[in-house]
Amino acid sequence: MAEKRGNVIVGQSGGPTAVINSSLVGVYKTARDRGAGKVYGMLHGIQGLLEEKYVDLSEHIRSDLDIELLKRTPSSFLGSCRYKLPEYSDKPEVYERIFEILNKLEIEFFFYIGGNDSMDTIKKLYDYGQTIGSRIHFMGVPKTIDNDLAVTDHTPGYGSAAKYIGAITKEIIRDGLVYDTRNVTIVEIMGRNAGWLTGAAALASCEDCEGPDMIFLPEVDFDMDSFLGKVAKLQEKKKSIVIAVSEGIHMSDGTYVCELTDNVSQIDSFGHRTLTGAASYLSNKVASTFGCKSRAIEVSTLQRCAAHLSSRVDITEAFQVGGAAVKEAFEGANGMMITLKRVSDDPYICVTDIYDVHKIANVEKKVPREWINDTADYVMPQFISYIKPLIQAELTAIMTDGLPRHLVLNLK
Length: 412
What we know:
412 residues; alpha/beta; 4-stranded parallel sheet; 18% strand
């Protein structure tokens, strides 16, 4: 019989993924199996908690079927937020309010599933808890399709997004070959400062597909004249050209390509500018320069919500990091984040580990320069070797009337 433990609360933050709910299930099931009291879920992350919005998860995840459905359900089951926790010195009342609510719920273990900004939240809450002698354990559970969290080999959510990008890139390439006319397709993929997702377009290169013709990542400055010159040379050899670009590609002066358009950008609570329009700008530039048909495709939110094409490896690891966070916290860990540590590529073996969240929060992991070719228009074989194990196998969707069935939080 499991030892009786205190109450648990878990939240989801930032942009969702196709497998973020598998991490939620990992936290919930492991906590219950290990004797936790109540397991609460924050509604819309820390922002919702400040408004005392939470649920008892046992009232919403009632069976093994619910667990399996939730593993296959995209987006954040509990809702999310993009709320930047202020510094204690600026707004001490925010911290006092959070701990007042946590103490009222008799919380002993706090888990937050998210990316870089979410780990900053864990760091700040842990630090404040230490100053007041709190008994609450704060643990970070990694999540982000951007794959830009430091220390961990990769992040849950990335493998499924990469699988989707590789698959649709193949399909876009096939589509471009239909007509016997010159055409250029530019695919815009998420990635502000790190090109992990855009590089996944190279997965389309295999025995039945030549893959994209060029790939541009934000790790290297974008040169417009060089880009147009390369397009011109490609058009001498082939009629259909497919190019993948990160939304965050920028010129040497720091100007984002998307800022060359007339789009009105927005700023979120973390100070991040909304980036969109790079593909559209480049497509118009190609059309006006070469007089050929050119189209822009923005993958946008599809790459983070396509649970119908998720990776079984990704779902499994997402569940594992949630469970590992509970195990480590119940054994005394505090102010830490679970990481994934790759032991072997062939066969692929990856285990969970633990690391100080202070050395992860606000540190951005980018694609190594040596994984990008010398001309900065494609990725190297090392990149493909790194990513391929993460996209393997599938977890078949549970279908109802021909469509995937999801588990939805019912608050009525």
